[in-house]
């Protein structure tokens, strides 16, 4: 019943909304919009300012040599906003400029390698900015007093920003769509990119164009173990050093630099970490960094070769993955399973005319009906109850 107060499985109170209020409220909370040909939603319903979304996205059309290139990105920040705010600010321009140069150069374009290199170089620059504050490396840092370190890194300006960008992190998912419908996808972390294609016979097919970079992924865990032989706890409880779930990201230099940078620099930073006790738990395992990688995995598809009658692209942060698993009761950390469900939902015949496709998918993964969606939208809590969730939907054919 509309207006009824209920309690969810965790005992938190929520309000059941009438359909009109629910549709309007969800669109408002999700900041539903259409940018060019791309439908967008990005939601964190918790009203507490400190819990505001750490997701970021970019949708842009670039006119280069009289041809249109489409750029899209979903960035999922964690531990704070500093890294994701930096990446969303500088990454698009760096990629645009690199693409302009590459297209003006004779020879074939390797857009995938361009994306991989730009993202890795950006991460390296974040780390190098910190290292440059302490010339001489770890050995020299040992001889700097805590007072000197604190004064240098907590200047409230440029130096503070450099340190905080290393302390926080973000995943990176980028799609570059060329004028001939070539799609290059670079994935760093656990956001997902899915291509839905409809065959001439009317069947929908799913192609996952991203990788699942977390410690629960067998290939990622094996890669890290092979890079750190003899370190049994480099992957512990499906987490890197028993601490962080993702295995590739920008920032997160606690897992990329020797531990002295954490004990002498990061733990002297103001603001610092929310949970410094957890750092003490994993820090003794930091023996041969780096443990996190900034090397993106690249996939490429030339859409015309698919012979499809209908094609769309979805980029989503892992909040949508979490919602999908909760709603559909599936092993939602398996990208092919999750992606197939999204394509199934978006390929429904009754979706036509429903407006923003990203909003349609979001509502479906939140449960669809008024009670289920209300139970995720109107919780009376000052702490977040769902992960930040961002979805970009683009119809290509």
From TrEMBL:
Residues 37-396 form the PPM-type phosphatase domain. InterPro entries: PP2C (IPR015655), PPM-type-like_dom_sf (IPR036457), PPM-type_phosphatase-like_dom (IPR001932). Pfam families: PP2C (PF00481). Gene3D superfamilies: PPM-type phosphatase domain. One of its GO terms (molecular function) is protein serine/threonine phosphatase activity. SMART domains: PP2Cc. PANTHER family: GM14286P, PROTEIN PHOSPHATASE 2C. This is Serine/threonine protein phosphatase 2C.
